[in-house]
Write a structure and sequence with these properties.
Layout lengths: L12 E16 L5 E21 L4 E3 L12 H13 L4 E7 L10 H16 L6 H9 L5 H6 L3 E4 L4 E4 L6 E5 L7 H5 L26 H7 L1 H11 L5 E5 L6 E5 L2 H8 L8 E5 L12
Parallel strand pairs: 3-4
Antiparallel strand pairs: 1-2, 2-4, 2-5, 5-6, 7-9, 7-10, 8-9
Length: 288
């Protein structure tokens, strides 16, 4: 990775995936938003962005995603949010290399948006603090702030209050069921558990907790249940969970070799990746 002073318009900017090592719903606010507790962990696999400066002040997504109007794309919205924040006239063309699935629970779109905030704040010389970028990111989506924050963390609230955590080295096999899970379908389900007992960040330890969204996702989207059951039946697949609201599921492994051995057992038409858990976001050291 470049040093803080080496990131420039020629750089490829990473947007890593996240995993929820646990995810509990501990209540609900009067405005309907759910109160959560979770641990976010960044992993090596992710999307990649590049930027080109524009002199016309426009924000342009070079290759819009299928079915997503460019004006609705989180990368474009993030860039325009920065422009509005500072009254800026700088523009950019955004090139998005998409490797993470949509509706997968890995935070792909949120990670992309956070990388846009971090990158263009740096490239345009705006000087906004990381804390301000987190606040702006929250207006785009609940998962955006953690990617701006840049550290593995125990999170609370709607997912925007962070306590950094130190996590052991681990490798993960992530499976991608052939289904896109709409987050709203999970959080509006009447059988979603919303009263798990809260804990403090200091009480959490690796392997503790489950994912309260998992039973609903498994009921509504049977491929999620099928992939989880497959993982949990495999020797060497530890701490099997669904990430976020799904659809992706994962197993934590002691080593890369263990994770690759699991992947080698996958049915031929199943999709899965082996990836390493990161100590922090690759842009955590970006000077802000």
């Amino acid at each position: 990775m470049p040093s803080a002073t080496e990131w420039d318009w020629n750089s490829s900017w990473p947007a890593p995936a996240k995993l929820n090592l646990f995810l509990h719903v501990v209540g609900r606010r009067p405005d309907g938003y759910h109160l959560l507790q979770t641990v976010f962990r960044f992993v090596e696999r992710g999307d990649v962005l590049r930027f080109e400066p524009r002199q016309d002040g426009q924000v342009v997504l070079a290759a819009p995603l299928p079915g997503v109007p460019a004006d609705s794309d989180l990368t474009v919205r993030a860039a325009r949010l920065l422009q509005a924040e500072v009254g800026g006239t700088s523009g950019a063309t955004i090139h998005l290399g998409k490797h993470l699935p949509m509706g997968g629970g890995l935070g792909g779109g949120s990670s992309d948006a956070a990388t846009v905030l971090l990158a263009l704040n740096h490239l345009w010389g705006l000087g906004l603090s990381r804390e301000r970028l987190q606040e702006l990111g929250l207006t785009l989506g609940a998962d955006v702030p953690i990617f701006v924050y840049g550290k593995n963390a125990f999170a609370e609230g709607v997912g925007e209050l962070f306590h950094p955590v130190s996590l052991p080295e681990a490798w993960y096999l992530i499976l991608v069921p052939p289904v896109e899970v709409p987050t709203a379908a999970i959080f509006t389900a009447p059988d979603l558990r919303r009263d798990t007992r809260p804990m403090t960040a200091g009480q959490w330890f690796p392997s503790q907790g489950g994912n309260d969204l998992e039973p609903v996702a498994c009921r509504l989207f049977p491929p999620v249940a099928e992939h989880l059951e497959w993982l949990r039946a495999r020797k060497g697949a530890d701490r099997c969970r669904m990430s976020g609201s799904g659809a992706c599921v994962f197993a934590e492994c002691f080593s890369r070799e263990d994770a690759q051995a699991l992947r080698a057992q996958l049915p031929p038409d199943w999709q899965g990746w082996v990836t390493r858990g990161l100590e922090q976001h690759p842009l955590a050291a970006l000077g802000i």
